[in-house]
Amino acid sequence: MKRLFSILLAGSVLATPLAMAAKANAAPVPHNEAIVEKKKVVVHKGHWVKGRHLSAADRHRAKPVDYRHYHLKAPPHGYHWVRIGNNFLLVGITSGLISKVETAH
Description:
Layout: H1 2-25, H2 56-61, E1 63-64, E2 79-84, E3 87-92, E4 98-103
Antiparallel strand pairs: 1-2, 2-3, 3-4
């Protein structure tokens, strides 16, 4: 019985490197293959989204407003409120980044 156990143990120890080498040479099979599709983001005119930048044309037509007159919160340092159409936007002065969007009632 001990002899049989020794033979099986030696066989498994010798066979392990061969099995690992065969596994390494096999072509990898992807389990979760990612499919990337191009998406086009369309922003409708007058539809403002936080985190986007105002275009140069929009920055020229945006009119700065007095936030107190429209009961808006005071802008943080480096930001100002502008009005485009019926929307008030809290925009970064230098970057044009939209931080907040309020609609006039």
